[in-house]
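Q: What would this chain look like folded?
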Amino acid sequence: MLLLLLLLLLLSPSPTWSDCGIQFPWIEPAVKQHSVRMLRSAKQSIQKSNEEALAKLMKIRWGKYHPGMEQVTLYLNNSGSVAINVTRISPPNQPYKPVGIIRVLERAVEKHNQELAQLMGNKGNMTFIFQTEDQPTTFAHLNYKLPLFSMCTEEGTIDLPVPDFTFDNYPEAGYAKTGFWDILELLKIKSHMIPWRTREPHVFMRHFAGGNAYSAALKYKLACASVVFMFESPYREFFYPALVPDVHYVSLPEVTSAELRKDVFPRIKVLIKTFQREYALMSPPLATAARDFIVNQLTPDAVSCYWLKLLVAYSRLWYAADSSVETFRTAYVEYHCRTNAIPQTWSTTAVPQLYHRCGVPLPYKCRTTDMEYNCCTTVVPQNGVLQQYHCRTTDMEYYCCTTVVPHSGSYSTRVLA
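A: My prediction, written as structure tokens:
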């Protein structure tokens, strides 16, 4: 009974959580993508307490260097509103970095205070640590239970990417107002002052995002309504999952200098000639789509919405983590079911037995007819009434117990024991 109450507390839906996601439809898929490695890593260390997990993050070093870190605690004040307490763990390499990140977070907490208060309820405070280096830090193979919040992430880490300091301030830009949205207004004016047909025909935006750190410049270049050629990088900012190659930018691979000369440079020349020939008088759809995404989908409200969704995803780990392994596993599967993140390759054949190899029979409430079909049964309920299913496909069992679905659909019974 206690386990069931915990599940209901952790996983009860809140309609207000999805409101901003309707206006910014890229955010929830992006958060899901960023969260997968976090949940996989957490499973390996779920027996540790949150305090132990935070202490492990604080000990991260690069040789003798301690990355700049701030600990953030969300708590309910006497009036029932969510407030923020920030404690410095180690100094940043630039003082304006944590200041900018915290200000953006504060605006998000202010805008979505009601939703966050509902999320936290009587479950207690929620704490996370963000770091201010230009690279992700929590490597997946070290099995951290909790991730760091960072300005970028990559495949080999579990860092959760958050909006960086440039959304609030960037003193090195040299303007009176240096926040991204202030600069964006200037870029919008400039882009209309210089129509496409009068722009220098050989000038295209090139974005080099490789090397050992992320580059914050991409959003500025996309906002210029120019064709952006981007060399792909393992380091990805929070909004990258929303960008589509050949829709918002031209994707170029990171290769050796020899391959650049042999393959990439000739391709760039061909593409530039094509753009010049086909779009002599008007900007290419690719350039327009890039600018429209930045202007309409990377707004202050969108960034606040992203923070909300990320905190919701993180909370499912933070609050479930100290309960039990089974609670965490159930929360993991239920989260993916409820947020429509179950892979399309999962079998739709339901095994009749109401049994679950992760430990005990557990309820999964698939909240759309599609998920009821994909997750649980070959029959889609016609009346739309939510039902309890005990998903019994091999893929579901494997996903619950190891959090990794093999492409082949096979799994080891030793892992499930």
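The chain is about 40% helix and 10% strand.
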